[in-house]
Amino acid sequence: MEVLGTQIRVQSLAQDGKVAVPPRYVQPAETRPKHDVGKRNDNDLPTPPVIDLSDSNSVHEELGRACREWGAFHIISHGVPLELLDEMRRVGRSFFEDCTMDQKLSYACDPNSPASEGYGSRMLAASNDKVSDWRDYFDHHTLPLSRRNPSKWPHFSSDYRKVVAEYSDQMNALAEKLLGLISESLGLPSSSIKDAVGEFYQNITVSYYPHCPQPELTLGLQSHSDIGAISLLIQDDVGDLEVWKDGEWIFVNPLHDAVFVILADQTEVITNGQYKSPPHRAITNAKNPRLSVATFHDPAKTKVIRPAFEPPKYRPVVYGDHVLSWYSKGPEGKQNVNALLL
Ligand SMILES: O=C(O)CCC(=O)C(=O)O
Ligand SMILES: [Fe+2]
Question: In this protein, which residues make up the domain named Fe2OG dioxygenase (predicted)?
Answer without folding.
Answer: 199-299
